[in-house]
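Hello,

Our lab assistant flagged a job as stuck in the queue for most of the afternoon. It eventually completed. Since we weren't sure the result was trustworthy after the delay, we are filing this so someone can double-check. Below is the sequence as submitted and the structure that was eventually returned. Let us know if re-running is recommended.
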Amino acid sequence: MTKFIIRIFILVLSLFTFIINAQIKKIGVPFITNYSPKTYKAASENWDVIQDSKGMMFFANHFGIMQFDGVRWSIVTQPDNRSMVRSLAIDKHDKIYVGAQGDFGYTIQLPNGQYQYTSLVKLLPVSEKNFGDVLHTIIRKDEVVFFSHETIFIFKNNKIKILGSKTSFDDFFEVGKEIYVTDNEKGLLKLKDDKLVPVENGQKFVGMQVRKIFQIKNGLLLFTQKNGIFIYTQNQIRPFVTEVDHLLKENQISAGLQLSDGYFGIGTRQSGLIVIDSSGHLIQHIDKQIGLQNEYVTNFKIDKEGNLWVTLKGGISQIQISSPLSKIIDNSNSETKIYCSQIYQNKLYIATDNGLFWLNWEDYKNGKRENVHFLHVSGMSENVWNVGVFRNSLLAFEKNGIYEINSNSAKAIAKIDGVWKGILVPNHPDLLLAGGYTGLYLLKNINGNWVYQHKIKGFEESSRIIETDKEGNIWIAHGYKGIYKLKFKKTFDTVTDIQFYNEKSGFPSSLFLNVFKIDDDILFGTTKGVYRQDLSSKKMIPQRALKKYLGLENHIRLLKADNQDNIWYVSGENTGRIIEKKDYNFQKEELPFRKLRYLYIPGFENIQTTADGNVFFGTQEGLIHYSAVKNKKYQRKYKAVISEVKCIFPKDSLLFSSRYDVLPNKNGSHDKLSAVLAYSNNALHFSFSSLFFDDAEATQYEYWLEGFEPTWSDYSLQTEKEYTNLPEKEYIFHVRAKNIYDVVSEEAVFRFEVLPPWYRTIWAYIMYFALYSVVIYLIIRYQKLVAGRQREQLIENQEIELLRSRAELNEQKLTFEQENMNIMRENLEATINLKNAKVASSTVNLIHLNEILLSIKELIGQIDKKNEPNVNFSLLTKINKIIDHELQGDKQWNEFEEIFNQLHDNFMQRLKATYPELTPRDMRLCAYLRMNFNTKEIAPLLGISVRGVEDTRYRIRKKLQLPSDANITEFILNF
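-- returned structure --
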């Protein structure tokens, strides 16, 4: 019952302590991550810092606005005049307002990741464009205030109101909902209704060089550059006395910040960062000697995780002020590997690989660190494996033996070749058992002093891990062999019984076994959880209670109980504690200790606890302190981001990036992101990160290309991923992060589509279909043609057969018909010959008749009318006419023409049709020429003289348009 009451009291006390101490840790130095100009590859000077709604960090750098996404640094934009950026402010829509040197404006992020800067100086009249650095930028409701020493610019409704000074302004302050300005002539002024209104007794501030103002109860707290801190209340200014006045006055205040827990952060020009409480007590002083990379603090802000980002004249530092863990370091701390720690007589001792060191713990934890350093304990310079308090004596166990420590000196009490640790023998508080490299040693306390007795016989194994049970048995773990259980003689000089346990005894393995004592119970750490010995079977079995919290999969490297009945453990890579709650319920706590992963010395994990709640972890990077005074939220949501997307071919063709001047859209003309890619761009490179900055390098990522991969990848530290030869398809790239506290981020996605190659486009398929149709049509047509030809061939063959059969039958008929045809040809030839003979005969008779008629006509013409008076000339004339009529008559000619055309293929019609200008006489002459008559034969037929025939031939030649050398008779014969 008493134990239960005590536990309740301790629990209430711890809760009360937590409530009143929910502040920045005063003990130790917070973890600091420094980012040098070589890391972020920009100018060394940084002047301001902001964080957007997603969690992205932005810094006012000499080269422009610099962005940090937890993995990569990049300059995202610059003012139009390429000047340094001095101040930043961000609104709820993530529009960033920028104050630069001789310029101010705003920037927004475009869909393709780029940031576009817009200058507002164009809204100013020419006379007001000559100003210097815009040192402060503040957003208030619907207006933005830009401050320079020469002018105050108030931007509202796309207009700028200008407030000037007769001399110059000194500084500008946002205090709660009010804005104050110090004027070098008028003193302290208040900005009200876009006007500068003097504050009562504001003249008192002239020349004070106020650099920061905070609202306090009934007044203002003023940080001055060279004169320290003052309180302004009831129109009176009085100094605010602090423990660091000399530091503030000597090193000049450059910036100030009121922290969330009521403390004040003070940035100096020459001494880094100073944190004080509301009473002026020093809480932290972080300078270059203990981790800050530069002494000149220009500004600082707290991010969403509670980390303090400090901008410096030379770099950027992140200080994890919200962590319950801190490093116990000082200016002279050079040791690294810590094997053990112990507080004794208000001194903190640490056992290292370079000897034993100590410092004044009371002064250190109370902030008096200027003259508090780790001092070397003389006489111990080798590996000190352990240090502990035994009956009010501090003993150190070292490579060369056992030493008693008195303040800063060591006295050897046992020169032994290597001792690991010591442990009191149960029921014998005056006996100390020491485990050595090659066995066990006994020490005895005589008159308050520990005296070496002897080496215990019968056991020669290395005894680095040693515990005792309530029966007085000694349990020793050998990491490579197993567990030994020893019993001694009553004189403690000889081992009387040795029992050995290994894999055959029930352990999952004989390697890496440990032995621990929790609430008087002996427990064993194995590679598969915590084991205990079953009393009945003597076999090793899993410990049921701890199995629920530590499982059976992790290597249990350390178990240790503190005086509040919490069980501290190192399981695998995780450190934690199992806290006992009401009704013997327990709670497992690991998240605050995730930073300790991979920091322990393997095999020498050590945790030291004190009655007042201090916990020390010895690591390879020094001594780390823990106190549960910070209410840090480990489960805070955060975002994963895709930093950059680029096509590998063509080389580094960027699709999405926030890096300055890498995408061709400086004027915003390409403000719509195109994620439709040609097939030639089907190889992509993704860069990603998470907006979680607490141990960002330990954040792990998993990714999934939906449409290409079946599921998420395994978590890894990889922050880039490439895909090549992606088929045409729509894809979604997913990525999410898991921080050191195992909190999974909101996922980031990038949607894109890879178009098919030209030969797999819809038009190509239409063309393929058309070609296929044509081919099918041609094949069908060809088959039809072949079938038709075959059918025709069959028909032809059948016809041939039929013709053959008929040929034989018709052969006689054909012979008969041939004979008939020959007969008909002979008859026809006879008819033609007959007609030719008739024509020839007619022609001859006609020629003869015409010759007679011409002779008669000639004789009639010879009768002389005068000499022949008795002749009847009228009768002669009539005879002449008859003769002329006969010579020119058409009766014989018509018969001749009919027969002639039949014999000569319508010669007359063809000639008349071709040469219509020929007269009937000409036609007759041509017919006689066709019959190959000569001129003398033709003359009688035409009833003209030979000379007349020649003239007629000449006229016909001209009508036929024959050249002079052409033979008219040959032309007529060939016509």
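-- support follow-up --
The delay was a queue issue, not a problem with the job. The result is valid. Residues 1-22, 665-673 have pLDDT under 50 and may be disordered. DSSP finds 13 helices and 64 strands in the chain.
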